[in-house]
Design brief:
two-stranded antiparallel ribbon; about 220 residues; globular; about 35% helix; 7-stranded mixed sheet; alpha/beta; 9 strands; Rossmann fold
Length: about 220
């Protein structure tokens, strides 16, 4: 089967910028109290559930994966980009990282206590998100948790230059929290909480959203 063009374009872009992306964002969570707070809420839910491991989908160089590890939950990372995975393995040698796609996760049905998609659904065309949420729901155990982060808005961006690199060619989609909550609900995932904050610093030009959702337990 031919790979969708958006996956190929996203992989090529992140392979190219991997090292500089890591250098730019390696300490970003240290100055991000809202993000740490929401990741902390997610981690507490997962620990309390006792349901099993978490996968950071679209993990990049592993900065969120590593942070979740410090919060005491079993976590591994998956990313489309082999170069990003190479950086993640170097920076976090005690954690497991593998190349893969959120469109077809290499996990059994109901195997996970949590899934994190931290600014990683943004490269999927919105009309193609329903099967992504269905895949998240498939791998989550009943009672498991999903954590999402994304930029808020309606206008897609065609990115040709980023992280000190020109000649890129991929897209990022701003999304509306109510639309994402509805898509998740269609996949059987319930919204528990969300936070939307205003843009901060020189690199942000749209609000940022953080959602925690849950797969219901069996009736």
């Amino acid at each position: 089967m031919t790979e969708p063009a958006y996956l190929s374009a996203t992989r090529a872009a992140y392979d190219k910028v991997a090292a500089d992306y890591h250098d730019l964002l390696r300490t970003a969570l240290a100055d991000a109290p809202y993000e740490r707070a929401m990741l902390g809420v997610f981690a507490e839910h997962v620990r309390a559930s006792g349901l099993g491991p978490v996968v950071d989908v679209g993990c990049g160089p592993g900065r969120v994966t590593g942070y979740l590890d410090t919060l005491g939950i079993p976590v591994s990372g998956i990313d489309l980009s082999p170069e990003m995975i190479a950086v993640a393995r170097r920076e976090h040698p005690t954690l497991r990282f593998e190349v893969g796609s959120m469109t077809a996760l290499d996990r059994e049905n109901g195997a996970l206590g949590g899934v994190v998609a931290w600014y990683s659904i943004i490269h999927t065309p919105p009309e193609l998100l329903p099967p992504v949420f269905a895949e998240f729901a498939r791998v989550l155990a009943p009672g498991g948790y999903l954590m999402l982060a994304f930029q808020v808005g309606d206008v897609p961006r065609h990115i040709t230059s980023a992280y000190g690199h020109d000649g890129l060619d991929y897209h990022a989609y701003r999304l509306r929290p109510d639309r994402i909550t509805a898509l998740a609900a269609d996949a059987g995932l319930q919204s528990l909480s969300h936070l939307v904050r205003e843009p901060e610093g020189e690199y942000e030009n749209s609000p940022q959203a953080y959602l925690v959702l849950r797969k219901p337990t069996a009736a």
